[in-house]
């Protein structure tokens, strides 16, 4: 699959470098097209090095050599070879050209010449975005089927605050993948995901818990939905907004999480246990608030091992666990994979404070039952989620191939 990534002249142009990498991670070839203004912000060499392809910087070649018939019709060749055109950041000027059919540079010419789906991610000053002319152009483009990844609100490089900031790279890449139709590889699947911490009460006001924010599990839920799956999200208490299309079951304790998972397991074809379930709970929960009276000993007992229970009763579900480890990460994770009879375990080194628990970033190794190991170096949880889902899809494909042969 190939995407032409149009980069326009704005402060956010540098963010397009990460978009190249994110698309490549999902197996997409990227042909970068830069407007003249974009080249004032970022050098074409940056994109050439990242994409491994020549960067298109002008309508008649790079200017070094005499224009010839190849450079004169290059926009047609690119227009026919791409599966989607993504423009990020898209400036007011380029949007105006697109909306009004002007074709005075490579990008605007490519826009007119391609029949591939188009996604634009605008970024500009608050007033430029709010201007009637820009809004009319956006409305016109939407009406013609162009997908718009709306800009976010916040502090802008121009010193103003409000809408105009480039959407997150993850949202932009998701929109591009959706446009490519590449994201439907989980269509027909029902994914049961657990996320967040559990709380094990000691008395009516105190509990034992952990630092899980739910971000990893919610990223998996979002990713699975985008790839066409139905999602049942069993979530401990977190401060996140659940993805709208997921069926959400709120729980608090490990026992409640166990009951919710077991009640819904039959409906699932894939179960992913990201939750940081407490391993111990109070043997006895005090009915009244415990009074301070010198040292005290709290008697604990083990909670139900939900993952092991699923493994013992599952039918055909693919079962994915996470292993949060601080030492001998891979060996311990592989031990859990074998003991709990999982298909995949995601080994998560949680000894590094900046990643893992309560962070937007993570670094993991995805271990499979057949001895495979896929290392995912530090990146966003969105990216980790997709790499885990890639591994699930690959496993399902291998299983289907074995059944056929
Ligand atoms: O929520 P975030 O802030 O985004 O952080 C993400 C994370 C660090 C919580 C996540 O990436 C992660 O590593 N989750 C697993 C946490 C954990 O409890 O690991 P564990 O090694 O203790 O448990 C192994 C597996 O058994 C896990 O899949 C867990 O869900 C499951 N388990 C554990 C205990 C229990 N009683 N029942 C279980 O099913």
Automatic annotation (TrEMBL):
<keyword id="KW-0210">Decarboxylase</keyword>
<dbReference type="GO" id="GO:0004633">
    <property type="term" value="F:phosphopantothenoylcysteine decarboxylase activity"/>
</dbReference>
<feature type="binding site">
    <location>
        <position position="322"/>
    </location>
    <ligand>
        <name>CTP</name>
    </ligand>
</feature>
<feature type="domain" description="DNA/pantothenate metabolism flavoprotein C-terminal">
    <location>
        <begin position="186"/>
        <end position="394"/>
    </location>
</feature>
<protein>
    <recommendedName>
        <fullName>Coenzyme A biosynthesis bifunctional protein CoaBC</fullName>
        <ecNumber>4.1.1.36</ecNumber>
        <ecNumber>6.3.2.5</ecNumber>
    </recommendedName>
</protein>
<feature type="binding site">
    <location>
        <position position="279"/>
    </location>
    <ligand>
        <name>CTP</name>
    </ligand>
</feature>
<dbReference type="InterPro" id="IPR007085">
    <property type="entry name" value="DNA/pantothenate-metab_flavo_C"/>
</dbReference>
<comment type="function">
    <text>Catalyzes two sequential steps in the biosynthesis of coenzyme A. In the first step cysteine is conjugated to 4'-phosphopantothenate to form 4-phosphopantothenoylcysteine. In the second step the latter compound is decarboxylated to form 4'-phosphopantotheine.</text>
</comment>
<dbReference type="GO" id="GO:0071513">
    <property type="term" value="C:phosphopantothenoylcysteine decarboxylase complex"/>
</dbReference>
<dbReference type="GO" id="GO:0010181">
    <property type="term" value="F:FMN binding"/>
</dbReference>
<feature type="region of interest" description="Phosphopantothenoylcysteine decarboxylase">
    <location>
        <begin position="1"/>
        <end position="190"/>
    </location>
</feature>
<dbReference type="InterPro" id="IPR005252">
    <property type="entry name" value="CoaBC"/>
</dbReference>
<keyword id="KW-0479">Metal-binding</keyword>
<dbReference type="InterPro" id="IPR035929">
    <property type="entry name" value="CoaB-like_sf"/>
</dbReference>
<keyword id="KW-0436">Ligase</keyword>
<comment type="similarity">
    <text>In the C-terminal section; belongs to the PPC synthetase family.</text>
</comment>
<dbReference type="GO" id="GO:0015937">
    <property type="term" value="P:coenzyme A biosynthetic process"/>
</dbReference>
<feature type="domain" description="Flavoprotein">
    <location>
        <begin position="1"/>
        <end position="179"/>
    </location>
</feature>
<dbReference type="InterPro" id="IPR003382">
    <property type="entry name" value="Flavoprotein"/>
</dbReference>
<comment type="similarity">
    <text>In the N-terminal section; belongs to the HFCD (homo-oligomeric flavin containing Cys decarboxylase) superfamily.</text>
</comment>
<dbReference type="GO" id="GO:0015941">
    <property type="term" value="P:pantothenate catabolic process"/>
</dbReference>
<feature type="binding site">
    <location>
        <position position="340"/>
    </location>
    <ligand>
        <name>CTP</name>
    </ligand>
</feature>
<keyword id="KW-0285">Flavoprotein</keyword>
<comment type="pathway">
    <text>Cofactor biosynthesis; coenzyme A biosynthesis; CoA from (R)-pantothenate: step 3/5.</text>
</comment>
<feature type="binding site">
    <location>
        <position position="289"/>
    </location>
    <ligand>
        <name>CTP</name>
    </ligand>
</feature>
<feature type="binding site">
    <location>
        <position position="336"/>
    </location>
    <ligand>
        <name>CTP</name>
    </ligand>
</feature>
<keyword id="KW-0460">Magnesium</keyword>
<keyword id="KW-0456">Lyase</keyword>
<dbReference type="GO" id="GO:0046872">
    <property type="term" value="F:metal ion binding"/>
</dbReference>
<dbReference type="InterPro" id="IPR036551">
    <property type="entry name" value="Flavin_trans-like"/>
</dbReference>
<feature type="active site" description="Proton donor">
    <location>
        <position position="158"/>
    </location>
</feature>
<feature type="region of interest" description="Phosphopantothenate--cysteine ligase">
    <location>
        <begin position="191"/>
        <end position="405"/>
    </location>
</feature>
<comment type="pathway">
    <text>Cofactor biosynthesis; coenzyme A biosynthesis; CoA from (R)-pantothenate: step 2/5.</text>
</comment>
<keyword id="KW-0288">FMN</keyword>
<keyword id="KW-0511">Multifunctional enzyme</keyword>
<dbReference type="Pfam" id="PF02441">
    <property type="entry name" value="Flavoprotein"/>
</dbReference>
<dbReference type="Pfam" id="PF04127">
    <property type="entry name" value="DFP"/>
</dbReference>
<comment type="function">
    <text>Catalyzes two steps in the biosynthesis of coenzyme A. In the first step cysteine is conjugated to 4'-phosphopantothenate to form 4-phosphopantothenoylcysteine, in the latter compound is decarboxylated to form 4'-phosphopantotheine.</text>
</comment>
<dbReference type="GO" id="GO:0004632">
    <property type="term" value="F:phosphopantothenate--cysteine ligase activity"/>
</dbReference>
């Amino acid at each position: 699959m190939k995407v032409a990534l149009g980069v326009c002249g704005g402060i956010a142009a540098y963010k397009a470098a990460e978009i190249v990498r994110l698309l490549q991670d999902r197996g997409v070839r990227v042909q970068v097209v830069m407007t003249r203004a974009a080249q004032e912000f970022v050098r074409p060499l940056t994109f050439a090095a990242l994409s491994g392809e020549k960067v298109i910087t002008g309508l008649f070649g790079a200017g070094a050599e005499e224009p010839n018939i190849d450079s004169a019709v290059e926009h047609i060749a690119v227009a026919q070879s791409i599966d989607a055109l993504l423009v990020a950041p898209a400036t007011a000027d380029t949007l105006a050209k697109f909306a009004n059919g002007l074709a005075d540079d490579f990008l605007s010419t490519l826009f007119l010449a391609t029949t591939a789906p188009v996604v634009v991610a605008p970024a500009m000053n608050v007033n430029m975005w709010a201007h009637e002319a820009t809004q009319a152009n956006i409305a016109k483009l939407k009406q013609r089927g162009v997908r718009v990844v709306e800009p976010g609100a916040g502090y802008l490089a121009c010193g103003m605050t409000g809408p105009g900031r480039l959407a997150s790279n993850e949202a932009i890449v998701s929109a591009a993948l959706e446009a490519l139709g590449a994201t439907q590889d989980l269509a027909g699947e029902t994914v049961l995901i657990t996320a967040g911490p559990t709380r094990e009460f000691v008395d009516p006001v105190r509990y034992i818990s952990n630092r899980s924010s739910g971000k990893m599990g919610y990223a998996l839920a979002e990713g699975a939905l985008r790839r066409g799956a139905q999602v049942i999200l069993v979530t401990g208490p977190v401060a996140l907004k659940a993805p709208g299309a997921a069926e959400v079951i709120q729980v608090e304790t490990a026992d409640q999480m166990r009951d919710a998972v077991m009640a819904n397991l039959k409906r699932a074809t894939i179960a992913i246990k990201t939750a940081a379930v407490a391993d111990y709970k109070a043997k006895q929960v005090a009915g009244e608030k415990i009074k301070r009276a010198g040292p005290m000993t709290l008697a604990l007992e083990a909670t139900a091992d939900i993952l092991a229970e699923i493994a013992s009763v599952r039918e055909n579900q693919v079962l994915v666990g996470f292993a949060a480890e601080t030492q001998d990460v891979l060996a311990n994770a592989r031990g859990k994979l074998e003991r709990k009879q999982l298909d995949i375990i995601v080994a998560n080194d949680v000894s590094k404070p900046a990643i893992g628990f309560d962070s937007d970033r993570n670094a993991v190794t995805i271990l499979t039952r057949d001895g495979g190991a896929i290392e995912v170096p530090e990146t966003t949880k969105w990216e980790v989620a997709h790499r885990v889902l890639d591994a699930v899809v690959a496993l399902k494909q291998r299983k289907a191939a074995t059944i056929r042969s």
